[in-house]
Amino acid sequence: MLKIDVHTHILPRDVPSWKSKFGYGGFITLDHYKPCCAHMVRDDGKQFRDIEENCWDAKTRILEMDATGVGVQVLSTVPVMFSYWTKPNDGAEISRFLNDHIAEIVSEFPLRFVGLGTLPMQETELAIRELERCKSIGLAGIQIGTNVNQLNLSEPQFFEIFAACERLGMAVFVHPWEMAGEADMQKYWLPWLVGMPAEVSRAICSLIFSGTLERLPNLRICFAHGGGAFPATLGRIEHGFSVRPDLFQDNPHGPRKYLSKMYFDSLVHEPSKLDFLINLVGSDQVMLGSDYPFPLGEAEPGKLIDSMNYDESIKEMLLNGAALNWLGIEKGRFL
Asked: Does residue 111 contact residue 124 with C-beta atoms inside 8 Å?
């Protein structure tokens, strides 16, 4: 059965010295300190994380995909590369560099990879221009962060970008990053364990209560990490909407109306949570996502889905059907 992994990250092997080019710092570079391994390092010398060649080498990825039965990966950049904090034109240049790299891989291995671009979200006009270019170079959609310089996705300038995605038929993947309160919870990996689930819920609620999802009914949008904290706290969110209507003036409809308009990846780490999510939204809105190649992901993509006592038709929807619908791609492309 075809497995499409919608949540994977990739980088170019060599990243330019943006600090040298733009004249200010804060950028990520790669230090290839030994064969097949690299440090992701900020240009101030602070290490971000270690990666291996499966983070940049497509042929290595294909070998690992074959070993775990994954037929297709959906590629997106590592969120730390979003660079929303940069000067807009600089951010646009970085986006073009990263998007061209992904498009080249998709072009070389069209049966194994689908690409998502990144946008300079800090400047609406530049973002839409790059979105249009992403479509022209064969990318199926975009990946964006849960916030843009701590601005919620409900801000009016982002609506124009989402509207352009709907108009162009480009899928949207929302990934947590720059977690609110991160500086106050540095111990125990709490930004990743607590902050990331909260960030995804923040993004979902912002898009619902702002009316973005109401006004763009054909927007194909997916939220990483099984929707984060949102599914488990939906009752609380809905209750808050009901008892304080004065705080929700931008959209008269409650959050449950929009469950049918959102996709989620399957990266929830336990069977009961996957059951809960499928019972909430349906198997046609949940799709395999592993966060490959990072340690908080699913080491063997699709293992949780395979382990479940679901009908084959439901497993097929989780492993490829929902992903194809979200991406707007015919299954025959990969057969």
From this structure: no
* pLDDT for res 198: 96
**Residue 171: which CATH number?**
3.20.20.140
| Three-state secondary structure string covering the chain | CCCEEEEEEECCCCCCCHHHHHCCCCCEEEEEEECCEEEEEECCCCEEEEEEHHHCCHHHHHHHHHHHCCCEEEEEECHHHCCCCCCHHHHHHHHHHHHHHHHHHHHHCCCCEEEEECCCCCCHHHHHHHHHHHHHCCCCEEEEECEECCEECCCHHHHHHHHHHHHHCCEEEEECCCCCCHHHCCHHHHHHHHHHHHHHHHHHHHHHHCCHHHHCCCCCEEECHHHCCHHHHHHHHHHHHHHCHHHCCCCCCCHHHHHHHEEEECCCCCHHHHHHHHHHHCHHHEECCCCECCCCCCCCCCHHHHHCCCCHHHHHHHHHHHHHHHHCCCHHHHC
Query: Does the predicted TM-score (pTM) go above 0.85?
Result: yes
Q: Hey, what are 318's tokens? A: 């989780």
Residue 325 sits at φ, ψ, to 5 deg, of: -65, -45
- Residue 24 within any structural domain of the chain: no
Owning domain of residue 122: 4-8+63-334
Domain count, the chain: 1
Residues in a beta bridge with 144: 174
| pLDDT tens sequence across 249-292 | 999 999 999 999 999 999 999 999 999 999 999 999 999 999 99
CA 120 – CA 87 distance, rounded (Å): 9
Q: What percent of the chain has pLDDT over 90?
A: 93
Residue 21: inside a domain: no
> Are 263 and 322 a contacting pair, CB within 8 Å?
yes
In-domain check, residue 41? no
Establish if 40 belongs to a structural domain.
no
Q: Nearest Cα to 302, choosing from 17, 7, 39?
A: 7
